[in-house]
Each structure stands twice: as C-alpha cells, then as structure tokens.
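Problem: given the chain below (248 residues), write out its structure.
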Amino acid sequence: MTRTDTVALALVGALLLTMPVFAVVARGRPMDADVARRSKSVLLGHWVRDWLMWVIGPMERGLVRARVSPDVFNYLGVVFGLLAGVAFARGSLSLAGWMVLLGGAADIFDGRIARARGIAAPYGAFLDSTLDRFAETFAFAGVALFFQASRPALLATVLAMGASLLVSYARARGEALGVHGAGGVMQRAERLVTLALAALLDSAVTGRAGWAPGSLLAGAVALIALGALGTAVYRTGYVTRELKRRPS
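Solution.
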C-alpha cells in the first residue's frame, strides 16, 4: 500500500470508531427527522444514516450559523465528483474513494442547510438533482479510464453509469406525471457508499488476497451496475402501473 492508501484507511478507521460512541449516546435519542422520513434500504439502514447525521451535525450547525449558502455545496459536489474522476483515471483509488465520500457529504449538506435556514426552493432542488448527475458522471468516467484495458470491467462501468442515470430519470419522469417513483436497492447513496468503500479498500484487499489491483473495485462496479439496472426497472414498472390505474 502507498502512504496515501494508509492515510485514507486510517481516516476511515477513525470515522468508524465513532460508531460505538454513537451507539451509547443515541440510546433514547429521537432519530434525525430527515432520516426517519426516508425509507431504509438493504445496504443503508436507518441506524447508519442516523449515525452519519450525528457525525456531521456539529459542522452542519456551524454552517447554518455562518449562513453559508446551500448552493456552495451543490457546486462542491461537482468539484469533488470531478476530482474523484481524475483520481480514478490516475489510479489513485483511495484518494478517489475519499473524493466520492466528500461529494456525498456535500450532497447531504445542501438540502439540510437549505431546510434549516428555511430557504429551500424549487431552483435549489433542480440544481441539486442535476449537478448530482454531473458529479456521478465525472466519477464513473474516471473509473472507465482506469478500466480501459479490461473490457468486462469497462462494460460494467458503462452499465453502472447508464443505469445510475436511468434510476434518476425514471423518478424525475414519474414525478413530472404526478407519481413518486422512489425506492430500489441501489439509489444514489448506496451507489456512492459502495463505490467509495471499494476504492478505499481495494489496495488492502487485493494486496492481501493476491488479486490484481482494481479487482475489488471492478466487483463493486458490477454490483452497482446490476443493482442500478434493477432499481431502474423497478421504478419504471412502478410508475407505469400507477399511471395505468388512473382513469384516462
């Protein structure tokens, strides 16, 4: 492992060490309101999401007091997505993993700060959703460049990127027609966490197992592709059924 890999894994370890602390302080504490109203998934349950909100809580409150615009985090999300793509393309997987995580954190901050300051607006929702697609596309483009010598991994990356966009399109098109078509096993948060963890752990796991570098990341990208395709199909079917039930 390189020094960057070691530092990246040490930071992940330090972050995970806060979980036992949260398990103690969270007893009897009401769940974060945003977390409670969201559906849980197979990969990310309410407890993990609530823990993350607890970790970022002090920073979030400081940003709200400083009256930082939520738009800043929409743009930061794109920057981190672009940096993740560059890091993937250069083979700096652990750095790319942290860029993906920081992009995900920026995505959390924008909506929560807007709601906390009472300035949530339709333009912000549009900007958030659209720029998220830019960030994800940049990250997957970098993954594609990393896997350019491996056709199976490159195909999985292209499918993962296309399916991720289809997941968002199915929801947006459904909502435009009055149907809330959310849900599925591989939504944006699940995709980001899966991609980030695989990138962060790839060097350690492949080195210990004697696998080719990038093997863990390739498996994770294939999982994202299958899960995102399944989610897109699920949402398409759900919205179609709901629209068919409506009187013409």
